[in-house]
C-alpha cells in the first residue's frame, strides 16, 4: 500500500523543494526518516526514555554540522585519495571536498546533500529514490538509486540500498547513522564488539596506507567487548565478496544491545571524536560533543576505486547494486 500523503513538512531544501519526514513503526520501535539525504532522524524504543540515534528536530542542523547524520552517503562512501579515480581505463577528477585533498562521502553534491523523492510508504516501511546525473561531483554514470527503510515485528531496522547505471560507474554508498544506547553525553558506558580479524591502517589523510592488517596484538582488536577508543575512525574488513549477510558488530550499553548485520565487505566505525554540533542542538535539546555517538557504516573498503587489491565497487550497465544492513536493538 502506498501512502505518500501522510507526511510532515520538516524543512526547505536549498533548491526550494520541501523536505518531508515520515514516521514508521514495527514492534516496539518507531523511526522517523526524511527525504533530505534519505536520512534517519530519530529512533525510539518503547520503555526507553531517550532516542537511540543522534539527530535533530531542526532541519537547519542538517545543512551545517550534522550534514551526514543518519544519511545515505555516496555515490562512494568514505574517502577517495587525491580526489581522482579510474573506471575501466578512464580517469575521473572528483570534487575534493575535504581540505581540497580527498573526496569524502561523494563530494559537495553527494547523496547526503540532496532531497530524495519519496516513492512509497506504509506503516512499517518507506522507500526513497534519487537520480544522480552523470558528471555530478565528477562521478560517471546516470545513477538511479533507491533506499528502503523497514521495521519488522521485532523492531529491527533493515536498510536496503539498490542502484543501476547506464555506463561503467563506481557505486558504494553507506548508511551514516550515529548510535547512543544509554542517552549519555559520551560513549564511556558502551562496550563494542567487532566481528573482524583485519582492519585498514590509515595515513595522515585518513585513507588506507596499505593492505589489511590483523587486529590481533593491535589496539584495534574488538573481537571481545571493550570500550570504543575515542579516536576510532577505521575500516574493519568483513569479507572480500559482497552479498552474504553476516554479523558485523554489537554495541552494549544501558541494558540494551545493538546487533549489526550486513551484506557489505567492510564496516567503517567512527566513534565521533570530531563531533561538535553547537549551536545546533540534538534530540535531547543540547549540542552533541566529542564521542556523543558512534557511527557504523557498512560499505566497500575506503579508497577502493584506486585499489585493485581491494573489493571493487564498479557497477556496469545491466547489473544491479544491492546492499542490505540490519540494525536490531534488544534488551540485554
TrEMBL record:
Protein name, as recorded: Aldose 1-epimerase
Keywords, sorted A to Z: Carbohydrate metabolism, Isomerase
The alphabetized list of GO BP terms reads: galactose catabolic process via UDP-galactose, Leloir pathway; glucose metabolic process
The record, for PANTHER family, names: ALDOSE 1-EPIMERASE (PTHR10091:SF49), ALDOSE-1-EPIMERASE (PTHR10091)
One Pfam family named in its UniProt record: Aldose_epim
Q: Which InterPro entries match?
A: Aldose_1/G6P_1-epimerase (IPR008183), Gal_mutarotase_sf_dom (IPR011013), Galactose_mutarotase-like (IPR047215), GH-type_carb-bd (IPR014718)
Family as reported in the entry's similarity comment:
Belongs to the aldose epimerase family.
Q: Lineage of the native species? A: Bacteria, Pseudomonadati, Pseudomonadota, Alphaproteobacteria, Rhodobacterales
Q: In the record, what terms sit under GO molecular function?
A: aldose 1-epimerase activity; carbohydrate binding
Please name the source species: Primorskyibacter flagellatus
